[in-house]
Every structure is written in structure tokens, then in C-alpha cells.
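Why Tricarballylate utilization 4Fe-4S protein TcuB? Reviewers of the renewal asked for a concrete example.
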Amino acid sequence: MSLDLSPLTASQEARRQIEICNACRYCEGFCAVFPAMTRQKSFADGDLTQLANLCHNCRGCYYACQYTAPHEFALNIPAALAEVRVQSWERLARPRALARLFQTHGVAMAGLLVVALAWFFWALTALRPDAGAGFYAYLAHNTLVAIFLPAFLLPLALMALSIRDYWREIGGGPVRLAHLLQALQAAAQMKNLSGGHGDGCNFESGDRFSDRRRIFHQLMMYGFLLCFAATSSGTILHYAFGWQAPYPLLSLPKLLGVPGGLMMVAGAAGLAVLKLRADPALGAARVWGGEMAFILLLGVVALTGLALYAATGTGLVAPLLALHLATVMVLFLLLPFSKMVHGFYRLAALVAEAGQPAPKGGAD
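Here is what the prediction returned.
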């Protein structure tokens, strides 16, 4: 059953469904959402925002539920929480209008930005610097820093403000180191994608339990972190040791970046296939295209980076460099508005959950 919820009714519908689930509690061990909801009997909007961002949309609760359509309760917790979750990203983002525009036209926005920026970087390569090796022979290091530093720091600042507002909305308290470590452990293990039964989630089908979604998420997350570490190590080598790119295969940037890029490509391909197989009615259907575009954008960022490395010394370097830089910049610029932000919200939700007292036992 597909849910078409407006901003005025999404919280009301989620609250209705959560209260029914809280009375039943059959799914209590499935993920972090259900133990969290048992702490109270009524739910403010901030409580719903927190529960929605705890939800990993594994869909196990839907397939296990006896109250889904055609039952008169017509429960669809994954879709109801997905809509509240997406609306929280829209509402708390800055600027809010741009966030809402991306959620409904994300594919077009990302595509147009990639094309425009690729042409921009292609034009810059015509102004080749006097010195430099590798792709620095096409674009000077200082030019890249001047372009990318604000494009990276500004979205991070906007996202930090959004997370601050999220923390206030859910009534989050002081962050203790133990809570942060517990949340990081849950995020690193993708604990809430393992399913309450331990056989994985059934994101694709009610009859198929699998860890594939968790594995693909881990490939994407750890691959991205490796690529970020590769870039960071290259920056340290450049400024602290005067060792400038290009770096050989057995250098730290390449030893981190090449495996990281391969992991991201594999993760993006796997997540895209799973998303095509899964029922869009069990998520926020109106942003399905934007979410798919985000997955593909991550994959293209990694793929063009690997292709650029493989094309070293050939005539393909200039066009591949322009395309790679364009996709990386689009990823940065859309950071506060795309699904990339979900990792930060989810980590904040896990930290807040770690600071809560253990839920009481069964229903009254």
C-alpha cells in the first residue's frame, strides 16, 4: 500500500501507526525503533523525528505485521517513518526551499550540475599551468584548492547547523563519550540492518532474508572513508612533506584510494540493484528517483576516479578529470540536501538512543 502523505498529515499518520505498534509490540526485537517506542505511550513530533531517523527501512516489520492492508489498520511503518524522515531532512536543511526542490527534482538537479560543472572544468583545462605532473598538468593545485575548499566547507557548515536543530527538536541531552562510542559501534556494524532474527533484513522481498543490503552499505561506507583517507593522506604528503601528486601505486593515497574506489563501485551497483527489486511503496515513494540518483552519483564519483587513474599518460586525462571533478563537486554541494545527510542524522539518532534508559518490559 502506497502512502501519499502531505507535510500536514505525515506526522499524524506516523503517530497513528506507532501507537498501534506500541500496543502490539510483536516486532520489539527487530531494530532500534521498537524498543525506543516502548518508553512512552504518546509521541510528540520530536519523538517521531527521532524514531524515523532510527529506522533503517529494512521492512522486516512490514512483512511480519498482521495489521497491514487489507486489514483496516493498514499499517505501513516503513513508508510512514520514511516520509517523516525525509520531511525532517527538508525542514531542518538550509536553505529549506532548496532542500525541498532537490527532494522532488533531485535527478534533474544533479544531472544538470554535473553537465555544467564538467564543461566548466573542461574549459579550465585549456588554461594549462606552466608546471605540474599528472592531472596537475591540466589544473594547478592552488586552483583546485581555491575551488573545492569553499565547496566542501560551506555544505559541512550548513549540515552542522541542521544536525544542531535536529538535536534540539528531539530533546537530545549532553553527549557522553560512552554514548558516542556505542553509536559508532552500531553504525560500523550496521547493526540495525541485521534483522531481529539475525538472518539479515528482507528489503527486497518478504520471503527473502539476506545480509546483502548491509554488506553493500558497508562497502559503500568503508569505501568512501578509504577514499576520504586517501585524499587526506595526499594533503598531508603535499603540505607536510612536500611530496606532490601524482603518487605511485605503492603510496598511501593509492593504497587507500584504489581499494576504496572499487568498494564504492561495488556498493553502489549492489544498492542500485536492490532498490530496483524492492517495493517503492514501502519507502518515501516521492523521492525514489532522488535516492537512486544519489546512489548512482556515488558510484560515478568512484568510477571516474578509477578511470582517471587508469588513463594516466593518455589523451583521456583531460575529459575524465573534468567529469570526475564535476561529480565530486556536485556530491559536496548537495551534501546538506541529498540522502548523503542521512548518515549524520542516523548517527545523531543512535547517539541519542544510547543515552536513553533501557525500555521497560512488555505492554501494560
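The two ends are 30 Å apart (CA to CA). This is the kind of structural detail the renewal will allow us to pursue systematically.
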